[in-house]
Amino acid sequence: MRCLTMPNVLPDLTTPIARRPAPTERMDENAVLEPYDGMLVSETAYWRFYADWPDVTYEWHNGRLEAKGVSDWATILVFQWFTGLIRYFLDSHRGGQLVNQALGFTLSLTAHGASRRSIRRPDTAVILPENPHQLQLTDRRYHGVFDLCLEALSDSDPEQKARDQVIKYREYAQMGVEEYYILAGNLDDCAFFRRDPQGRYQPMLPDQDGVMASVALPGLRWRQRDLVRQPTLEALLADPVYQGYVLPEFSRAQADKAAALQRADQEAQRADQEARRAEKEAQRANQEAARAERLAERLRQLGIDPHLLE
């Protein structure tokens, strides 16, 4: 599997790839209009009316609504399997919050000296325990910066695909999201990025065995080919790549059981050896008793009382 590389020439992240003409009249902040992709709305109106629109999930970029695209079933399966790994990791290691796209976060960006804002809703994101901005039970948006963002590639049209691969790639890096993963049913479209000290994303590469490792979540490892194979839980529990964080208590219980069986077997072997030694001692005692009886019988035949010789 190859990691996705970014094109040398990237579009301006502050300019939507396609947009409808802006209306000339001033927007009524209290008007609720049927939304559409590219619709001009204020940030306030977005949070008030469109952040939880029932039929379509909308993000907000440069004052316009952006409808999140749809992924194919192969991509959804990859995404579900991989986010399951992350949940196993968070449950068994350091903890953290796993967030779905119901919660958006605001990105304050700069490009060409101009300030711009976006509201993004990653398909899944992670907030680590040391992040100073932890979600509270009453929150409807996230007020910090996620530590890890994951997007299921929306490839229904080139604009949607570029939004995940180019626009969000630039935005997340600038905002300080440490790692950004793009998951797809086609492995050639999968990409994993880690932020370097200069604040730019660099591709994460597998080792010689095809195993990838996260730095933001130390201990999270996965095989590239497993993204498509999607091993079962039973297979993960038997695989050293995943044993360290996929239900480790099960692996520990299995190890304890194996150790107990080994100890029981060793005890049984020692008991068997002791039984054999006792049997040999009994045989020797019987042989000594039989020899003594034969000697006593010979003495009696000679008219000698054996007891006089004791």
Element order: H for helix, E for strand: HEEHEEEEEHEEEEEHHH
The value of Rg in angstroms is 35 Å
In terms of DSSP E residues, the strand content is 15-25%
- Give the helix level as a range of percent: 25-40%
Number of strands: 12
Q: What structural category characterises the helix and strand content?
A: alpha+beta
Q: How would you describe what is shown here?
A:
It is a single chain. The protein is α+β, with helices and mostly antiparallel strands and 310 residues long. The protein folds into two domains: 188 residues, tt1808, chain A (Alpha-Beta Complex); 58 residues. Helices cover 35% and strands 17% of the residues. Strands 3-6-7-8-9-10 form a six-stranded mixed β-sheet, sandwiched between helices. A four-stranded antiparallel β-sheet has the order 2-1-5-4, with helices on both faces. The longest helix has 54 residues. The N and C termini lie far apart (92 Å). The N terminus is likely disordered.
